[in-house]
Amino acid sequence: MSNPTDSRHAGGVVLFTNGDTSYEFFRDLGQGRVGERVLLAQTRTPQGLGTCVVLKCVPLPQVAGMTEKFRHTRARLEEEVRLAQYLQHPRIARVHGLFEIPCGLCVAMENIEGLTINTLLSVAQACGRYFSEAFILYVGAEVAAALDYAHTRTDNAGQPLGIVNRDINPARIRMGPHGEVRLTDFGVALSRLAGRLATSLPRPQCEVLYAAPEMLLGEVVDARADLFSLGLTLLEFATGRHLYDPGHLRIEDVEARLSKEEREQALAASVASMVTELPPFAEDAIWCAMAYRSEDVERAAEGLPVPLRDILHTLLRRNPAERFATAAELETVMRARLTQLGPYSREDAVREVQRALVEAGDKLWELEVPEDEGGITVPLTASLSAGELLTATEPSGGSRTAAASSRHPDEVTTAPGGGPHRSSKQTPRKDGGPVEGEGGCRGAEEGR
Question: Looking at the domain 14-110, which fold is it?
């Protein structure tokens, strides 16, 4: 861990310095999941402005009773930095280090430019249609590749680390300006890292609405829980529907499906959720996670092409043993289906996002986009014209056009309106600006 000074440089407010690099405040991104403050900072060296980084900051406790909480948070941050040493992968955001400053602690992380799947879902609903099967498979395969890398990491002695992200959800998956897909956070990951901080209570360390049933119900969790969370994410991204928010069922109907033993287990998990101060909607998610059936998955996936539905059915099995055995297996299946559909590249993914941004039009101004997102722009004066963006619905390739024209009647393109849409859970932007041009730091802005 570094011990930087807090000297001041000319320019913005300097949060701290480390060597000849200063970290200047750029934007407040709000509060993190364990009470830390999340900031966007601009780096500066004697050569000029550098890149932006995300800082997770924990202030020193001002009250004696908060000391134990601070120690716990510090231990979690130190564990996150140590684990990050084993997660050096192009599809995973990098952690630069833990810095101790006079007023507290800061973890510096790579700032990932682009739009989250959460924001892209809102864009899709604004423009009136969801993204293509190829786009969904491309994103899913890229995330699966990152998860396969994480799940199979070993320590320096060659022992499996048993890493489980535990927080795969639409806000943690981001598409960059060049079509790259990256996971942005392993901050609550489970691992066998030596000296790791044990979870003291059986509570999900994640966004509850995307947690696997075994996580919500206090059962044993392994890497297949991440695959379930990815399945929930892709299902919602493809249809706007969520397995834990079934529009056709009341909570009374959900409870009526359960056996006595299942009701007792769900009730115990619900009580635990109150003790551990999970959000109020956690109880409904717990009961739905216990009660959902295969027909509920089929109903939620209605309208999707059969191969994609089959993948989602396997991902969303209640029993982990019935899911894909590994993320590598999932990636192989998704890329095989992509091959059947025809060539689909990073450039195709960016063009599809650009088309969606154009089609959404003025509705983009109504979207609530986190302030650290942006970077994907619509090149109206470049090689892609507005007319091409509006009229082209698939990437180039005759095989894809032929496949679309010969679909089975059951393989229809879904469109917003076929099921309940989840309300936006994003942090409102302060300036109310459009989605495509935000997220940059001063270095990028000064170069425009």
Answer: Phosphorylase Kinase; domain 1 (3.30.200)
